[in-house]
């Protein structure tokens, strides 16, 4: 159940925060885990923790991975922190991934930048057709949000329906949700997932979140 998972994520986050409070250096993968947990908890508090961790890392000159940044962007969007989401997304050095492509669409939706959104999807569907160029993939769930957003603008609906058909024909639509895309773990990262699961079960609490990172 979600309540059990929430408790597990909270326990895992407390472990990571205690590590940070004890000046344990985070690796790139540790930041991915921390931001992923904050994203899953999806609360104002977890957003503050994610933001604090990210800002501290940048101040220290640490380079955060694209995947970690994607979790931070997604969390900001879920918390209706559009300006923060746009700021983080703009700092992703190479946003050429399925997660970035879909987050960019959500940013356009929340920004009400519908003309630019349709143009972005058009470029993805009708751009360079070389088989050697990696095409952007879009989640069916995200595209459904686009259609819902433009449904009251006949001209944009017509354009979207045309683009939607082209994206399907070219195999650029996936049934995976945005959440599934974000949380997909490559084979060589399974060890980190197992480690996180172990921490969730065997190590629960050190001190309340409000007394740890955010209190400093």
From TrEMBL:
Kindly list the biological process annotations in GO that this record carries: mitochondrion organization; regulation of mRNA processing
Query: Record's InterPro entries?
Result: PTCD2
According to the record, the signal peptide region is: none
Q: State the Gene Ontology terms under molecular function.
A: RNA binding
Record-level GO cellular component terms? mitochondrion
Name by which UniProt lists this protein:
Pentatricopeptide repeat domain 2
Give the species this sequence originates from: Cercocebus atys (Sooty mangabey)
Taxonomic path: Eukaryota, Metazoa, Chordata, Craniata, Vertebrata
């Amino acid at each position: 159940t979600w309540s059990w998972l929430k408790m597990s994520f909270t326990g895992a986050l407390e472990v990571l925060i205690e590590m940070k409070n004890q000046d344990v250096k985070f690796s790139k993968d540790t930041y991915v885990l921390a931001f992923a947990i904050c994203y899953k908890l999806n609360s104002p508090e977890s957003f503050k923790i994610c933001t604090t961790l990210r800002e501290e890392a940048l101040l220290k000159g640490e380079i955060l991975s694209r995947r970690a940044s994607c979790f931070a962007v997604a969390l900001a969007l879920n918390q209706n922190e559009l300006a923060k989401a746009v700021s983080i997304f703009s700092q992703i050095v190479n946003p050429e991934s399925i997660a970035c492509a879909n987050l960019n669409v959500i940013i356009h939706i929340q920004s009400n930048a519908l003309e630019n959104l349709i143009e972005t999807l058009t470029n993805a569907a009708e751009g360079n057709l070389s088989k050697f160029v990696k095409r952007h993939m879009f989640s069916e769930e995200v595209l459904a949000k686009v259609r819902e957003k433009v449904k009251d603008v006949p001209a944009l609906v017509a354009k979207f329906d045309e683009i939607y058909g082209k994206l399907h024909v070219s195999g650029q639509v996936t049934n995976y949700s945005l959440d599934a895309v974000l949380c997909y773990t490559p084979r060589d990262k399974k060890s980190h997932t197992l480690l996180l699961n172990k921490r969730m079960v065997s190590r629960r609490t050190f001190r309340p979140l409000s007394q740890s990172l955010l209190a400093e």
